[in-house]
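thread from #wetlab-drylab

HS: before we spend reagent money on co-crystallization trials with FE2/S2 (inorganic) cluster, can we at least see a predicted complex? here's what I'd submit
DV: go for it
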Amino acid sequence: MALLDVCPVEELPPCSVKIVYAGSIAVGVYNLGGAYFALEDRCSHDDGPLCEGDFDCDEGVAICPRHGANIDIRSGRALTLPAVQPVDTFPVRVEDGMIKVEVL
Ligand code: FES
């Protein structure tokens, strides 16, 4: 397990996302109304750059820019086709004002 610095809390305001890299894995870290969630930046449908697509902050949904699948950022669950499998999620925590994500 690796604990990765994302950014200071003030650099990730509500309804924003920041993508960080851990080796070959890219992770999108989201602020949803003050709660933080992390989702692998790889769509379960066809490996699209999921977290680079739109973020529906009202619903907490990432919209894949490749074919439009909706993924719940809290659970990684696929909500719409063409994705059916969940996307990996990662624990997020804040320590001393710094957002950190635990990546396997
Ligand atoms: S790669 Fe994301 S919907 Fe196809």
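DV: The two ends are 4 Å apart (CA to CA).
HS: ok that's useful, forwarding to the group
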